[in-house]
Structures are given as C-alpha cells and as structure tokens.
Amino acid sequence: MKKKRQECLWGNRISSPRARCLLVIVVLCFFSLFSSQVSAQENRNISINKQNVPFEEIVREVEAQTDYSFMYSTETVQSIGKVSVNVTNVSIKRLMDAVLIGKPCTYQIEGKVVIIKIKEQPVQDTIRQKAVKIKGVVTEADGLPLIGATVVVKGTSVGVVTNATGNFELEVPADHDLVVVSFIGKTSQEVRITGKTEINVVLQDDVQSIDQVVVTGIFNKSRESYTGAVKTISASDLKASGNRSILSQISNIDPSFNIADNIEFGSDPNQLPDITIRGRTSMDVNVRNLQEESSVKSTANLPLFIMDGFEVSLQRVMDMDDELVETITLLKDASATAMYGARGANGVVVITLKRPEAGKLRVSYRGSVNIEAPDFTSYNLMNAREKLDYEVAAGMLDDKYNPNNQNLMELYNRRLIEVERGVNTYWLKYPVKTGVGNRHSLRVDGGSDNFKYAIGLSYNNINGVMKGSSRNTLSGNLYFQYELKNLKFQNDLTISYNKNKNSPYGSFSEYSLANPIYTPYDDEGHIKKQLVETISQTSRTPDPAGNPLYNASLPSRDDGSYTNIQNNFAIEWKITSDLFVRGNFGFTKQDSRTDKYLSREHTSFDTDEYKGENSNMKGSYTYTTSYMLSYEGNLTVNYTKTFNKVHQLYAGLSGNLAEDKDESYSVTGRGFSSLNMKNLGMAGAYALGKPTSTEAHSRRLGLIFNVNYTYDRRYFADFSGKIEGSSKFGSNDRTAPFFSAGLGWNVHNENFLSSSNAINLLRFRFSYGTIGSQNFSSYQALTTYRYFGQENYKYWNGAYMLGMGNPDLSWQKTKQLNLGVETSLFNGLVRLNVDYYNKLTEDLLTDINLPTAGGFSSYKANVGEVRNRGIELDANVFLIRNSESHIMWSVGGNLAHNVNKILKISNALEFLNSELLDEAGPNPSFLYQEGQSMNTIFVVRSLGIDPATGSELFLNKDGERVYTWDPKDKVPFGVNEPKVRGNLRTMFRWRDITLNATFSYRLGGHIYNQTLVDKVENTTTAAKRWGNLDKRALYDRWQNEGDVTKFKNIKDFNTTNASSRFVMKENALSLNTLNVNYEFDTEWLKRHCRLDYLAIGFYAEDVFYLSTVKQERGLSYPFARKFSVSLSVRF
C-alpha cells in the first residue's frame, strides 16, 4: 500500500540521485524567482519631511516605508551629523542624494541594502605617486564575508567599505602604515600594512555588542537599560565549552546553572540531569524521596526552558543540535523572569535559534566522531589475593569460629589454588566497551530580502560505555520567513525522533561487587549461571552468587522511543518605526513508548515466588505508552520612542493562553513459555493487579506588561508585571499578580567618566519582585476519586476518595532582591560582573496533618518558607590582545555561592521528620527541618574507633559517650552543598588556531561517603561479605588491640549505621573540556577548494576529576572520558 501511494503522488518513483538533486534545484529556483517577483512589485516611492534630525531617524523612516535596510558604522554616522530633508514620492536614490548633499559620506545600493561610507578624500598628485595600493578581504570568524565593513587609514578620513564579497581596495598615503577595520557588533582591528599589498582581516564578535540586546523570549530589551540579572551565551561560547550536550555546555559557562553530580548513574546517556538555578526553592512533598542518597529529585526546582518564545521540555533540550543555536540567555532574578509569572521562580533558559540571511544559497555541514572510554579511577577494589587475605583476616575461613563446619578449610584450599594459578578476574571490564558514535548536522539556507528559508537535518548517535546502551536522535527542521511591505511571516517546523536503549548487562554495581576469585565461564568456555555452589547450610559459607553476565546472554529488551513535532508560527506587523505588533502560535505533540522484556530464565525469577505451580509465570513484559500535547498563543505589542534626544521609552503589552495535556498507560504481562518471546501478546496472563495509567490536563492564561525608561543613557528604570490564572490551583484563588521593579545607573556615561580611557563600562543595577512556581500536579487542588475496578455491589462500581481537595490552595511565591555591578576596563581588557541576590519563597506547597478519624492523614496547603541567599562573580582578563601578531590570550573564572535555609514547614513534615529520624539504617537522613538547609545531612556524632575494642564510640544528644547507636541521637552534621562552586577558563588564539580549556571546582561542601559504609564496613550480608570490597576493608580496619584506625573491627559483621565518621568535607577540581580548533585560510579555500569555510577541531571532555574524598563514582553506570574530532565546512 505504501508503494502505491507513493507512485500516485509522483507518477513514477524518483530513484535516481541526479533526479533528486535536480528536483531540489528546481524547487529552490522557484522560491528565488517567486521572491524576486515579489520584490519587484514592492518598490515604492518615499515621502519624508524632517528638519534637523539625526541621520538614524531618516533611516528608521525609510525602513518603515520600504523594504530597504541600511549598513554603516558608528563613525560614519557621527560624521554625517544632523540632516534636513523634505521630499515627496521620490526614489531611494533621489532621497539619498538629498540627504547626503554636502556631507563627507556617500552611498551605494546593493539589492535592498543601502551602504553608507566615507568619501575618499582627494589627494595631491605627488602624494598619489607615493601612495600604496592595498587590497584585501574582511570576514567573520566562521569565514562569512562582512559586507559594508569600514576600512579607514588611521588618522585620516581616507577609507572605503567592503563590497558584497567582503573585498576592498584602498590607496594608503605613503606617510601612513595603519588601517582600522571595523563593523557593527565586531571588535575593531588595527592592521599594519608596511611591506604588504594584500591583507586578510577576521573580525571577532564583540562580546559587549552581543550583550547589547537581551532576548527574554517575550520582549527584546536593550542591555544598556536592563535591570535584570542575565547571562547571554553566544554560539561561539557554546562551541568553546564542549561538543556533546547543550546542558553541560551551559554549566561549563555559568556555575549558577547547576547540574548535580550524579554519582549513581554517571555518564548514562539516557538519564535526565537534575538542574537548578540559584538554589532550590520548592520542596518535594514526598520527603522519603530524599532518603535515596539524593538520587531521586523532584522536578519542582527545574528551570523553565523557552525556545523561540515557546516552552520546551528538558528532554527536548538535551537531545537538540547545538548547531541550531544562535544565543542562550539565562534569566535569573525577578526583574528578568517576572514576565513568566508563575513559571519563573526557578529561573528561565531562553534559547534563540539561528535564522537565515539573505544572499546566495549556503550549505553548511558539521560532523564529528565521538569516543567514550570508561573511567574506573574512582574504584579501589581488591584483587583476588587481597580478597582471600581479607576473608582469612575476617575469620570467614577459620574453623575455630565454626567448629561444626569442616568444609571451611577445604574452601580456603580451593580458593588458594585458584589464586596461585593466576585467577584474578577483573569484573569491571566485562559490561563496558569503548563507545564510538557520530554526529552530523546539515543546513541549507538562503533567499532574498523578502523571502528567506532554511532546511536542516541532524543526527546524533551516542554509544555509551555500558554495552548495548545508546541514544540516537534524528531531527529535521524547516524554516521560512516572508516579508510583504510592513508584514513579516515566519514558520518554524521541527520533527525529532529518538530511540534509546539501556544496557542488557544490568547495573554496574553487580560487577564491582563480584569476587575476583570467581570466573564467569567454566572450563569449557560456557557461561555460568551461578558463580559458586553452596558448600553447607551455615551462614558462614558463601551463598550461591549469580553470574551478572548470565542475564546479558539471554534475550531481553529495555528501550524507549519518542516522536516530537513542534511548529511555531509568527506574524509581525510594523505599524510605524516605533510601534509593531507580533502574534505567534505554537503547538507541540509527542508520542512515547517504552518496552522492557525479561526472559523466563532471568535470575530475578529464581525466587520462592516462582516455584511450584507459579513456575509458569516466569518472564515479564512491561509496555508503557504516553502522549503529550500542548498549545500556546501569544499577542505582543511593542512601542519604542525617543523624546528630546534624552528621554527613551519602551513599553510592551502581551497576552498569552496555553493548554497542556498528558496521558500514559502501562501494562505488564507474565508467563512466557519460551526464551525469545519479545511480544506482549505472548504472555500467559497479566500481572497481578491491573494496568496503570496517569492523566494530567491544565490551562493557563496571562496578561503581561513591561515599561522601561532611560534618561540620557545614564539613568534607567524597569517595571514588569503579569496577571496569571491557572487551573492547577484552588477555585477560590486561581489568579495571582506577579511584578518586578528595577533601577539602574550607567556611571560610564556621566560627564566625569565620558573621557576616561580606563573605565569603559560601569553599571549599577537593583531589582525587586515577586514571581511564582507551578511545577506541580494538575489536580492537587481537587478532590479526586478512583474506582475499585472489578469489585462491585449489585452491578454498581464503587469508588473511593484518592485525595482531598483544597479550594483555597494558592500559588507558591518567591520574592527576589538583586544587586548587580558590571564593569569593563581598558577597552575590554578586564571585565568583572558581580551579583548579590536574596530569594524568599513563601506559601510552599506541603502536606497538612488531619485527624485520622477523617480517613485521610493529610492534604495539600500553602505552608512553608525557604530562603536562598548568594553571590555570583564573573571575571575575564586579556593577558595578550595583539591584532598585529594575531595573538590573543585570555583567562577568566566565575564563582557561585548560595546558602539555603528552611524558615518554616508544616506539621505534617514535622511528623514525618520524627518518623524518619527514628528509622535506623546505614544511610544518612535528609530532612526538612526549620533552621536547616534542604541539603543538611543528619547523622549520629561519632568519636571514632576505640583502640582497645575496635568498636565505634558515639556521642549522644546529652553529650555522653556511648557504644550504642541510637537514631534519636541524629543531629545536623554538614550540608551536602559546596560553599563555593565555579569554573576556570582560558582561551589562546594564534592566527587560525584556537585553544580553549574549562575547569570546574567545588569548595567547602560536605558529602556522605557511602563507599566507606558499603564497601569497607557494612559486610552484614553474605553477598557483600563474600563479594569484592574496597582495599581499605583489608588494610585500614582495626585488627589488634591498640590499633589506631578509622574503621571498626575487621571481624565485626554487625550493621554500621549512619554516623559522622562518613561525613567528609570535599574540595574537587575537574577538567571539563579541552578543545583545539584550526580554521583554514578563507582566501586559499575559495581559490583552491571553492569553499567559504573549513575548520577541524579536537575535543576532550571530563578529562580528569580530583577530589579530597575517595569514593566510588558511577555506581549503576560508570563515568566516561569523552573525545571527539569534528569537521565544519560551508560552501
């Protein structure tokens, strides 16, 4: 059927590659012809009547009446000064002749671009004979020609502008040897021409110029008059900070974007990271999640991700191609995020995608080969001889401790023979491999002034270090922009498909626990199901240990996939040069599924539950499917006006409406009669119980306003607000106002600093506001019911109350204060930015206790307060910036310090805290307690190991020394959060070679060293005792009276509970990324290869990790070092 439909559509199937190429060329030619015809129809005459106004005002008027745009430098406009003109229905040429009459500038028109340039001054004939004629080309860092760049002989008015290919020719007087090359948004360069006739100039992005516009996702604001705390990241910044994931690249640039170190899942490509910006502001209402060694985290603190004005998921950002990104803006404080109302408290990440430029057809490609190598440096496991020595030292093979067991000596002899014959299995090597993946990105763009288009295709294949684990993403993008008079239409369609697989080798912890005396294969090379047989029924001999490799040899399935479709449409109407209206509508649809199959021979079914008559229920298949659909529409009005040269006003008004739907279903089948039955329909029966499902549906709407006023570019004020309504909250309180106000002072624009060569930028900012958070359940405010299912009474189905509603449930609000200072010294050689913030979150959503007679123990309410205070600092210094030698070297760093404190909690949490404190166990308690951090570690204080007995000595709450561990003696002992975290970076560029390195550091925090508990002392179970352990279990434990050690008696197999012995202060340093990039000479490429740009790069990521705490990292999935080689080309 599929074949027939295709033949009906095309008539005949197009199978020839030449025919396909011809089809693409015909389509592109059609678009170009169509846009040219439209352009020809839009030529209009111009009418202007302006007296004694700046030239920029004439430019704005022309751009409002026509489709022409202007290109000029700041120096050129300053030389024009003020102009007067009164014309009616004239062409662009006649207008420019009238405007520039008597001015030291001229113009040229190329297509729809008017290039303003300084006139070449007449030179005496004698000087002309001595003048040196030079020519050259000016390009961007990526090789694109710069049209309209100004090339001026320093100290004179002699100069030209570059043409459509970036080339220029200039006659330089004999008594001058320096030319200045400049362009808007680029760093100007001085080039010495002595002895040269040709020069090639590459202008780098001016970071300060890039920061001049703040993209908020709703309104674009001038950086000079913006009071919010933001960080703008360019595409070149992203490339310099890594080559794998946009999320890790952002974290390498700004430490306030914190990705929690995932000790449990390491470098697993299928794990979503835990991300916060400026600390945690929301509580996980299920406090028991905190007891999982902080590995289970709520999404309540996840920042909001906005892409081109629309919300996207964390998963979507993790899988997207960074080649599509133009800029990323982190919005941190209330002034920056108030316009997002109830979604802004956790910070906002605004992603702006690249847009095509008018001109010839451009084809860009970037590909890379990526290698991941497992990193075992954190593991300190025993070898086979050490493990046997430990078993002897611990008395596990000593008959005098078990006189009724005559087989222990036999067991020891057998193990000794194995060790002597060289058995020393390194189990860590079996489930891992060196993963080799690849990444490709292809983009075609072009068009005219009126019609622009871009077609993109990307593929990312990640092969993890655990065998069989992978993540593949295929994405296609189609964008077009069409301009008709004062209207602009845009549409951006992206379709992504992802396929991910988890390793069939199970958890990596099974291999780190396997005894090196055992071998996975028998003498005939067959894989063993059990590593050791039971010698006796006593508890002192090893129980049967399963071979972790056995399950990997069985048929299995553990994978997932999703298809995501996102379409954003926008229309913009430029009413006047000061007023425009923009409307956009977007929708996102995602279908997902996961499949997990375990064959009947899997060792998880070797339990009493599946013996006897239940043996036919072995094997399982779990199928889960989910569906997500969201709509969002926005209408925005922007007004900008300058009054009397010194008063600048910006005002914006926006309304938005959104709806989100989510559904998921899951069913499990059991009882598979054969090994390879990877189909749910082959199951003998459903699992006990019934299929499960979840459903969420919410709507929100809001009205946003923003006003910004600037006086004389020195003093400015910002006011933002949003009135928002959401269906997630109680019927009595579904709407809430959010606002922010800010003030700023551009000290560098004051008269007393205007002529300073030392201080180029000095800006003070202050802001205060209230924003909200709604990353919670859709139905938390409603009373919900669930049917009993198969149970009924007289053919009527019963239902029971699932959750008690609260019609007064309100918004969780965060009050934020921010103070900021921005400085730039000595023409940008030194830059320093500092921000201080204070965030107070009120009306936290937590549980409130109810009398048990009502049938419910708690319900949701607004009770609780959390405060975050901190400081952020970012500095950069150019040690060398020599344009003549083409050498640039900069060093920089940043830090983030945050103090989290719980000010108030509900009675339900207090009750649960008391329950958790009373629970004994080897893990520390993470509790919500007033006066403490949300990351405080609760343990019993330890006085160390008694040298006389080898037992641990504790300090109870009364200050008494005791040998008995009591959970009621737990106290706060350290915070699992560094006092300071940050990055250190350096960039060195010499001609076409660039080197970047980024380090990260953490100082002063405390961590609970679970490795010491699980792999050194807690050998209570046979699996741990007879499995492998950390070397410290043999060399550093107490063995004889008088030993001064950190760890208890080696023969003590009692449970080691959580104590302060294992709480350690950590200082850590890691090399996150190191890359070297080489860009080929642009002119040579054009002459010999017909290429516009060619570059190769080498990346190394997660190169090393140094810490003052020695513990195992990557327990269920190991960490990996990552290397890649990339190729970028454009023609």
Automatic annotation (TrEMBL):
<dbReference type="InterPro" id="IPR039426">
    <property type="entry name" value="TonB-dep_rcpt-like"/>
</dbReference>
<protein>
    <submittedName>
        <fullName>SusC/RagA family TonB-linked outer membrane protein</fullName>
    </submittedName>
</protein>
<feature type="signal peptide">
    <location>
        <begin position="1"/>
        <end position="40"/>
    </location>
</feature>
<keyword id="KW-0732">Signal</keyword>
<dbReference type="Pfam" id="PF07715">
    <property type="entry name" value="Plug"/>
</dbReference>
<dbReference type="Pfam" id="PF00593">
    <property type="entry name" value="TonB_dep_Rec_b-barrel"/>
</dbReference>
<feature type="domain" description="TonB-dependent receptor plug">
    <location>
        <begin position="224"/>
        <end position="348"/>
    </location>
</feature>
<dbReference type="InterPro" id="IPR012910">
    <property type="entry name" value="Plug_dom"/>
</dbReference>
<keyword id="KW-1134">Transmembrane beta strand</keyword>
<dbReference type="InterPro" id="IPR023996">
    <property type="entry name" value="TonB-dep_OMP_SusC/RagA"/>
</dbReference>
<dbReference type="InterPro" id="IPR000531">
    <property type="entry name" value="Beta-barrel_TonB"/>
</dbReference>
<dbReference type="InterPro" id="IPR023997">
    <property type="entry name" value="TonB-dep_OMP_SusC/RagA_CS"/>
</dbReference>
<keyword id="KW-0472">Membrane</keyword>
<keyword id="KW-0798">TonB box</keyword>
<dbReference type="GO" id="GO:0009279">
    <property type="term" value="C:cell outer membrane"/>
</dbReference>
<keyword id="KW-0998">Cell outer membrane</keyword>
<keyword id="KW-0813">Transport</keyword>
<dbReference type="InterPro" id="IPR036942">
    <property type="entry name" value="Beta-barrel_TonB_sf"/>
</dbReference>
<dbReference type="InterPro" id="IPR037066">
    <property type="entry name" value="Plug_dom_sf"/>
</dbReference>
<comment type="similarity">
    <text>Belongs to the TonB-dependent receptor family.</text>
</comment>
<dbReference type="Pfam" id="PF13715">
    <property type="entry name" value="CarbopepD_reg_2"/>
</dbReference>
<dbReference type="InterPro" id="IPR008969">
    <property type="entry name" value="CarboxyPept-like_regulatory"/>
</dbReference>
<feature type="domain" description="TonB-dependent receptor-like beta-barrel">
    <location>
        <begin position="522"/>
        <end position="1077"/>
    </location>
</feature>
<keyword id="KW-0812">Transmembrane</keyword>
